[in-house]
Structure to design on (842 residues):
């Protein structure tokens, strides 16, 4: 079979699984998830053997250690993956919930029933744990999923998918519910992204390059964020120790992720008091500072401190680097965020009631926080129970996406013979 | 200025108006809507004069009467348009509503705040009343709108937009909030659909050709339905007089609209009792019947009754024509709908509790009804208060779209210094 037909076949399998998946009750779905968790542990030797082959290949082709770490599976990570599936089983099932059921003047009862989206295409890098996470979330929300992971993880993804499919079959669910594209051919993704009649939504997860490629090629809706240029604004009169604690957490706790702070904005009235201590703490942790002229006037140039260029305000460093700018007002901070931001996550540190609310209202980002770290933009942390990604597109979902965001609603209407006049 | 820059300027104006629009409270928005209603009535002579020029031009170029009817404005239609704006003013304002505000174990309070989408592109045919409807709904939901109506209505749309913009300026709102593309150049739409950085959503309304053109060209999300191939399934043991009443309403009350019935499915156990009376009623109203062999066996061939071809099951007639098929079971009816339907609107006529619920659950359409006419798929009729269109895409909105569907939510988080551990 040629590639095009192979991908088409996979899409057809997925589509065919949808009515079955949509009709499963929570107990059935949770039983499969539990079985999947057990099976991953039981088959750990086989899985780790395949993963080892991927690792050896990746080492040979000179991938860096950070890459190998993400690719590597261990008994420990398999246990975490199994636990993740069990946690998804414990989450409330969004499917079938009817909200509303209001009554119209003519007696029609109208409500909205939550239903799965259908078929989800999930495109990601060489992180085999994501294969299992995504499969679990899609299954619980009643969706079929077509997985396309990074080519370096192909053996790991195939053996994991095989284990999951065994569980599906044992529970009488078509294996089209969870499929992995069984090739590393780049054309496979291009073919997949053409199948708008089969695939309802594509979620790409990974670097900006991958996401832009997917968005440019996809004929169906794509939920994604390109990057997270996250800001913290330290307001006039802010609680300075709190500001230090939050800024350090947002910058250094995990600098390589999308909700880490990339630009620090400081109100001019608080800059002199705040910035020297902040710079000292950042430098102690090895953070390079790229400051505006006003910032440098206060903290001085020196080792690891240099002037920011215009391009720095747009930058998602994903590293121990921070852009710092002194602004004249909250308005100026908001304007900076609008101009350079990515609609991802922004926070204000303030003691002022009015300005807290003004910031919340006027910043146009998926998560806006008062007196808390940007690192909280995460489905688990915000209480969605799980996360399949973060969207900075405003349509359908804006912010972290959990099980609910993998569903939609249809209208249901109960009548007694009503016609329209 | 060349066309490309002209369109870009319009998009920039719209984007610039967004922060102002997003910050308006309901009273301010309702005051503008009321002023717009008054102004349309005051300026009726000028408006009707421009509309007359459009009409004369359209007559000269040989457009049919139905087309001219849709293009024509009168004192009466202007009154209706003004009333429509006043009704939108009375609707609840979705913007700013915070849902949730749950508390996380670490004390963070997390909620979702409803916000405008931003800039909406609205592309439609030569119906100048839609210009005012769309402007009113976008304004009330805090969005800027860029309107591109059919070229035959250009003078009407420009004079209407000018009236609306006068009201905006008088209320201190940038006129970028409501703009009409001031050219009939087809390239204008193509340019507009490239501006994904400026336009958050495009809604096309009109024939399938227009909608397919927009969807193919747009780089931003598009909410639309291509067509409405709506089904009614008359179940075994259905209340036959009720079925007649609903089917006649769904077929003939307004055959040219997307929620009219196009295919009638009849359970084999009820076909003999139901179909002769149904055929008689349809023929009395001049409806042509295209039946499956089993249907023709019962009602016979004859004037206005002929055999359906495979293509008929896919057809959106928008006319006094009905495809009729006898099916062996509810499952077969659902399978027919899945294969040939358009996910728009389907109804079951039944007395059976279990089968009513099975139909509701298993039919994958934006509106599914029991014992009511498909004609109820409409924002007003279902209680949304207004309608800007109907979506059969599942993302963001599925079914009629009212003010809420022109908004999204962002997460807001109130902290007291929380950091992530």
């Amino acid at each position: 079979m040629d590639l095009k037909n192979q991908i088409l076949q996979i899409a057809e399998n997925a589509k065919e699984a949808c009515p079955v998946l949509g009709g499963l009750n929570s107990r059935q779905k949770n039983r499969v998830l539990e079985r999947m968790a057990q099976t991953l542990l039981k088959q750990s030797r086989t899985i780790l053997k395949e993963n080892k082959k991927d690792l050896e290949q990746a080492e040979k082709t000179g991938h860096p250690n950070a890459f190998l770490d993400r690719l590597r599976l261990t008994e420990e990570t398999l246990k975490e993956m199994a636990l993740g599936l069990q946690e998804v089983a414990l989450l409330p099932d969004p499917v079938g919930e009817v909200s509303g059921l209001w009554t119209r003047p003519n007696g029609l009862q109208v409500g909205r029933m939550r239903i799965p989206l259908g078929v989800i295409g999930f495109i990601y890098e060489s992180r085999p744990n994501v294969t299992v996470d995504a499969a679990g979330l899609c299954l619980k929300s009643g969706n079929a999923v077509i997985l396309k992971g990074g080519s370096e993880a192909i053996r790991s993804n195939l053996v994991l998918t095989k284990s999951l499919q065994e569980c599906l079959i044992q529970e009488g669910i078509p294996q089209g519910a969870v499929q992995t594209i069984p090739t590393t051919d780049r054309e496979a993704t291009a073919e997949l992204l053409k199948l708008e009649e089969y695939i309802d939504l594509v979620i790409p997860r990974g670097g900006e390059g991958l996401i832009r490629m997917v968005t440019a090629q996809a004929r169906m809706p794509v939920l994604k964020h390109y990057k997270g240029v996250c800001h913290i604004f330290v307001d006039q009169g802010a609680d300075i120790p709190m500001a230090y604690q939050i800024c350090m957490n947002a910058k250094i706790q995990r600098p390589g992720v999308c909700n880490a702070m990339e630009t620090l904005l400081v109100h001019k009235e608080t800059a002199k008091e705040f910035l020297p201590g902040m710079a000292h703490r950042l430098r102690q942790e090895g953070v390079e500072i790229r400051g505006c002229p006003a910032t440098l006037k206060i903290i001085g140039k020196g080792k690891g401190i240099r002037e920011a260029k215009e391009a720095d305000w747009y930058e998602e460093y994903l590293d121990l680097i921070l852009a710092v700018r002194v602004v004249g007002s909250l308005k100026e901070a908001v304007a900076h965020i609008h101009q350079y931001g990515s609609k991802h996550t922004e926070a204000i540190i303030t003691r002022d009631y009015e300005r807290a609310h003004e910031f919340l209202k006027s910043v146009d980002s998926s998560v806006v926080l008062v007196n808390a770290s940007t690192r909280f933009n995460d489905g688990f942390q915000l209480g969605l129970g799980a996360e399949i990604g973060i969207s900075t597109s405003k349509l359908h979902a804006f912010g972290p996406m959990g099980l609910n965001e993998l569903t939609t609603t249809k209208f249901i209407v109960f009548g007694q013979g009503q016609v329209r006049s």
Summary: Residues 230-382 of chain A form a domain with the Aldehyde Dehydrogenase; Chain A, domain 2 fold (CATH 3.40.309.10). Chain A is about 45% helix and 20% strand. Chain A has a mean pLDDT of 96.
